[in-house]
Amino acid sequence: MIIAIDGPAASGKSTTAKLVGQELNFLYIDTGAMYRAMTLKAKKLNIDYEDTEKVISIIQTTDIDQIIDSSTGDTKTFLDGVDVSLEIRTPEISKGVTAVCEIKEVRENLVNIQRIMGKRKDVILDGRDIGTVVFPDADLKFFMVADVDVRAQRRFKELSEKGISSSLEDIKADIVRRDERDSSRSNSPLKPAEDAILIDTSELTISEQVEFIVNKIKNEKMRNGKNEN
Ligand code: CDP
User: Fold this and answer.
1) What integer is the mean pLDDT of 3-13?
2) Whether residue 32 has its Cβ less than 6 Å from ligand 1
3) CA geometry: angle at 18 spanning 182 and 148, to 5°?
4) For labelling, which of 98, 131, 208, 210 has a CA lying 20 to 30 Å from the CA of 51?
5) What CATH architecture is 2-210?
6) What is the pTM of this model?
7) Which has the closest alpha carbon to 138: 146, 127, 154, 148?
8) Separation of alpha carbons 198 and 151, rounded Å
9) Which of 89, 90, 98 lies closest to 178, judged by CA?
10) Is the CB of 179 under 6 A from ligand 1?
């Protein structure tokens, strides 16, 4: 099965997708982390994120992969063989990723990798364009939203726990900026697929979000007769 979760920044996609993946033994693919890894590569090579030609020139020599850490269940992101899961969460990368992910060639390359990964086993992917572009035939599509202040609070807490410092104000501004740019870009903009199920997580707990999606997946499996292993 292929499950797509799209939605704006910090709406709870990653946390939910990870837990759903653990519960149902699906591979969880964090596509945002891949765009972040590409951005980190540009940073390491001192390439300006807006310098499209230069960013395109490093695609072929950049290796991005994800694996599940069996002890924690976390999806780890590797850039050229090195675990960069924490480094890609800094405010600088959050800022730079918006430009890097708009480059057509970057998207084509990462979408290809995502489609190959999607063939490995049952998968759940989160991003902006999973249900619309990467897997338009996904078995189920969810579009997760939440009030912007709730999202900023959640991201603030998450980053603090990771030891990454930033102010609540800056986090909120970054979320608003990214959502605007992600929604208005011409290439794979952030928008719900026509057949996506909308979930507003503003007043839901994580376990409620997870349970809602798990139940939908179980029902879909039954409906399709995919419940036999
Ligand atoms: O976790 P958060 O919501 O902050 O963002 P993310 O999923 O890590 O994605 C980082 C950025 O990558 C987003 O703001 C988008 O600009 C971009 N992105 C994208 O264009 N397409 C995707 N499938 C996933 C992320």
Assistant:
1) 96
2) yes
3) 40
4) 131
5) 3-Layer(aba) Sandwich (3.40)
6) 0.94
7) 127
8) 16
9) 98
10) no
- The domain limits of the chain are 2-210
| pLDDT at 228 exceeding the cut of 80 | no
For ligand 1, is residue 35 a contact (CB within 6 Å)? yes
Give the pLDDT confidence of 173-186 residue by residue, as tens digits: 999 999 999 999 99
CA distances from 190 to 22, 26, 70, 162 (A): 26, 24, 31, 27
Residues 6+ positions from 35 with CB-CB distance below 8 Å: 97, 100, 101, 106, 110
The answer to whether residues 182 and 175 touch, using CB atoms and an 8 Å cutoff, is no
Residue 101 CB less than 6 A away from ligand 1: yes
Q: Which two tokens stand for residue 97?
A: 């990723």
- CA dist., res. 145 & res. 151, Å (int): 9
Per-residue pLDDT at 104 exceeds 80: yes
| 154 Cβ closer than 6 Å to some ligand 1 atom | no
* Closest residue to atom 20 of ligand 1, CA basis: 101
Find the 225 Cα to ligand 1 centroid distance in Å: 33
